[in-house]
Amino acid sequence: MIHLLHPWLVVATSAMLAAAAPVAAAAPCEPRPLPFAKDGGPWKHAPLSSLKRDTVYTLVEDDGRTVLQGTADSAASLYTAKLASPVAAPVGLSWRWKTDTLVPNADNRDKKREDAPLRVLVGFDGDRATLPPEEQKRFKRAERLSGKAPPYAVLMYIWSNHVPVGTLIPSAHTSRVKMLVVASGKEGLGQWHTVRRNLAEDYRRAYGGEPGPLLGVGVMTDTDNTGAKATGYYADVRLECDAK
């Protein structure tokens, strides 16, 4: 069951990036930071499964700033921020991240090696009635398991071992999750990198249509498939209405 209803869809996206039904009315975009704060702020831990070890997320100080550290040891879970109300696309998203090491043997094109030291996920609303029957069945099963409807679509930005930057990787488990490689290889390990993405452009490339309202954002460091250890750092996640 875990493989048929992959955690991306069942818990990771349902628990904190839950969709409204029917398609939610979206608020106009307003630039806003999504800070990692000691009181939790908009962020919460989102376990994937009782059968999996959780990634350990802790707030640490880095050069006088509070950042999120995710440490995975044969583990996988998310840290997510659901928006108080859906935000109309197009919208930009920026963040900073760093990792000291890659996950040995990881390859997100292979479901048996689908791990990464750094991931940023974005959930979108949409009309589930337009999906193929098999996907609608997955959504219903996911909703029964989690008690909440998964988002219509998820974009996942990853740091890959060797897959070229710009590669779009479809999930092996569902057509509603697409991974986009935005960093790859050993160059830049141990350094902070700023990433800025135009979510509307990325969504069009991934799904061939216009994005629905933005529901929430998540981060994830995971090594459950390879059994390795990895640590990733995240900071300064921000929605930007200027999506350049």
What would your notes on this structure say?
The chain is mainly beta and 244 residues long. It has one domain: Sandwich (Jelly Rolls). It is 14% helix and 40% strand. It is built from three helices and 13 strands; from the N terminus they run αβββββββαββββαββ. The strands form two sheets. A seven-stranded mixed β-sheet has the order 2-5-12-7-8-10-9. Strands 1, 3, 4, 6, 11 and 13 form a six-stranded antiparallel β-sheet that branches. The longest helix has 14 residues, at 133-146. The radius of gyration is 16 Å and the shape is globular. Residues 1-11 and 20-24 have low confidence and may be disordered.
What's the structural blueprint in terms of helices and strands?
Layout: H1 7-16, E1 32-33, E2 43-47, E3 56-62, E4 65-73, E5 77-87, E6 92-99, E7 116-124, H2 133-146, E8 153-160, E9 168-170, E10 177-184, E11 193-198, H3 199-207, E12 214-222, E13 229-240
Helix pairs in contact: 1-2
Write a concise keyword list for the protein shown above:
Jelly Rolls; 14% helix; mainly beta; 13 strands; globular; 244 residues; seven-stranded mixed β-sheet; disordered N terminus
